[in-house]
Amino acid sequence: MNRDAEYYASACGAGVRIGCENRVYTFSNPGDDQGVESGLARICRQEERHIACDILDQSRIAPMVLRFEMERLAGNAGEQSR
């Protein structure tokens, strides 16, 4: 796990929404969607009302990963057109 991923995992564990969202982002970049879900599920099992449970909702994870991938592709396309 890289430093950013460790930081976001820690922030997410502390209940910081943007930490959980960025955790999804840092793990989705290498394509580890299942790793994201299992990590959030582990937090959610420990505390049912944790923000990770909200983020874990399948209706949110897939669109978030798709959005991050689209942003990455758009950024790459912009860099190539320069």
Protein topology:
Elements lengths: L2 H11 L3 H12 L4 H14 L4 H6 L1 H23 L2
Q: Would you give an account of this structure?
A:
- It is elongated and about 45 Å long.
- The protein has one domain.
- Helix 2 (17-28) packs antiparallel against helix 3.
- The chain is mainly alpha-helical and 82 residues long.
- The chain has helices at 3-13, 17-28, 33-46, 51-56, 58-80.
Instruction: Report Rg.
Output: 13 Å
Largest sheet: none
Helix count, DSSP H or I runs of 4 or more residues: 5
Residue share in helix = over 70%
Mean model confidence by pLDDT: 81
- How much of the sequence lies in strands comes to under 5%
Low-confidence residue ranges: none
Strand segment count: 0
Structural category is mainly alpha
From N to C, what is the helix and strand string? Answer: HHHHH
Quaternary structure state of the chains depicted: single chain
Q: How many distinct folded domains?
A: 1
Distance between the termini: 32 Å
Q: Shape, please? A: elongated
Give the key terms.
80% helix, 82 residues, single chain, 5 helices, mainly alpha
Compact overview of the structure:
The protein is built from five helices and no strands. The protein has 82 residues and is mostly helical.
